[in-house]
TrEMBL record:
InterPro entries: GH, GH_1_N_CS, Glyco_hydro_1, Glyco_hydro_1_beta-glucosidase. Belongs to the glycosyl hydrolase 1 family. GO terms for molecular function: beta-glucosidase activity. Keywords: Carbohydrate metabolism, Cellulose degradation, Glycosidase, Hydrolase, Polysaccharide degradation. Gene3D superfamilies: Glycosidases. The keyword Ion transport does not apply. Pfam families: Glyco_hydro_1. This is Beta-glucosidase. It catalyses: Hydrolysis of terminal, non-reducing beta-D-glucosyl residues with release of beta-D-glucose.
Length: 449
């Protein structure tokens, strides 16, 4: 047995997260266009076992069942993403009404169950037509993104209060454009840096478009990690600082402070035009943080193309993905953000946190993982950090990008042959734990601080 969770503040928002390409399927329905993940996953050797998101969890057709699972779980919010190519098949021009109709139905169904919809506008499934024009290496993509945001908020903004612009721009830049392990599969290494600026510019333009259409709450979700040097050697310490700048500060500083950190400002050079940083630093109502594990960094080897080298963290249990489980790292991350940004730091939502485990419904490992990380969030709140929500990744087993269907992150097990959903032990634990963690069952977002 796990001890009951401590009480969280009134109005603290508990939810689950998913992403469009990972669960929707229906890639050829309602006029949806081709995304970079359609192309990537259908390219031989790009994904494990050649897996694709063509069907995934068939959420497009089975969303009423999935919303019933959310309602039964007792969470107050659902963070999902909207597929840009379902709304604009070529990434620009007039919206596809049939595609927007799906999200219209989804939002209505959530609200009928008393669940707050929290849509993310971009979770990596860029329309292939835009990638053919340079993708996020092309500055114009930022403007196309703002236009897309306008179309979506015009359709859904009468019922959707809270919006997330981008999900994990660091991961999309690094895995998609620098290392090539994600779509679109480019291997530019440090030459991928323009992708960071153009994504952030897109965020700022989209934030302004959302506000112009009456949106009251706007945020971005960044993947953040506490960084520790592998040793006390000056090379390790410097490498850790450089990695922290690339992974964390490159995406937090311009949004919160209106500037890029030191050497990265120099590296971006003429890419940053007059007025760009004012757009990027458009005020936020909250900051989304995705946390999975700390990162240990050492000095690079002689032949390394990067100025740092990631090293394993020993002495902790690991998930099925091989990631170390360090709940205290989440507390450290949150208190570190407060120390770094002070009054510039808005309220925080943990918009993703979860783990992959072995297949099967008996997942005590995940129960212990969630219990530890929820307590870590509570510790950060007790230390004075304004954290207002926690979203589990993920509601369902899903298409885990390049790893295909080999990694199981769901509170609910999915049989991908039959699409049968089976709640795991962790689902039942969280269902019960939430009763002790919230006061009076309130799921209402208290609004900007």
């Amino acid at each position: 047995m796990v001890d009951p969770l401590p009480l969280f503040p009134d109005g603290f928002l508990f939810g689950c997260s998913t992403a469009s390409y990972q669960i929707e399927g229906a890639v050829h329905e309602d006029g949806r266009g081709r995304s970079i993940w359609d192309t990537f996953s259908h390219t031989e050797g790009r994904t494990l076992n050649g897996d694709t998101g063509d069907v995934a969890c068939d959420h497009y057709h089975r969303y009423p069942e999935d919303i019933a699972l959310l309602a039964d779980l007792g969470v107050g919010a659902y963070r999902f993403s909207i597929a840009w190519p379902r709304v604009q098949p070529t990434g620009s021009g007039m919206p596809n009404r049939a595609g927007l109709d799906f999200y219209d139905r989804l939002v209505d169904a959530l609200l009928e169950k008393g669940i707050v919809p929290v849509p993310t506008l971009f979770h990596w499934d860029l329309p292939q037509a835009l990638e053919d024009r340079g993708g996020w290496l092309n500055r114009d993509t930022a403007s196309y993104f703002a236009d897309y945001a306008s179309h979506v908020v015009t359709r859904l903004g009468d019922r959707v209060r809270r919006w997330i612009t981008l999900n994990e721009p660091i991961v999309h830049m690094a895995q998609g454009y620098a290392y090539g392990s994600h779509a679109p599969g480019r291997t530019l290494m440090l030459d991928a840096l323009p992708v960071a600026h153009h994504q952030l510019l897109g965020h700022g333009l989209a934030a302004r478009a959302l506000r112009a259409a009456g949106a009251s709450e706007v945020m971005i979700t960044n993947n953040c990690t506490p960084v520790q040097p592998a040793g006390e050697d000056a090379g390790d310490v410097t490498a850790a600082a450089v990695y922290d700048a690339f992974h964390n500060r490159l995406f937090n500083d311009p949004v919160l402070l209106g500037s890029y950190p030191g050497f990265l400002a120099d590296a971006l050079g003429d890419l940053v035009r007059d007025g760009d940083l004012a757009v990027i630093s458009t005020p936020l109502d909250a900051l989304g943080i995705n946390y999975y594990n700390p990162t240990q960094v050492g000095a690079p080897g002689e032949d390394s193309p990067l100025p740092f080298e990631l090293q394993p963290i020993e002495g902790y249990p690991t998930t099925a993905f091989g990631w170390p489980v360090v709940p205290s790292g989440l507390t450290d991350l949150l208190t570190g953000l407060r120390e770094t940004y002070g009054e510039a730091l808005p309220p925080i939502h943990i918009t993703e946190n979860g783990c992959s485990t072995a297949p099967g419904v008996h997942d005590q490992f995940r129960v212990d993982y969630l219990d530890g990380h929820l307590r870590a969030v509570h510790d950060a709140i007790a230390a004075g950090v304004d954290v207002r929500g926690y979203f589990v990744w993920s509601l369902l087993d899903n298409f885990e990008w390049a790893e295909g269907y080999s990694q199981r992150f769901g509170l609910v097990e999915v049989d991908f042959d039959t699409q049968v959903r089976t709640p795991r032990d962790s689902y039942r634990w969280l269902q019960s734990a939430l009763l002790t963690a919230r006061r009076g069952g309130s799921a209402a977002w208290p609004g900007p601080g």
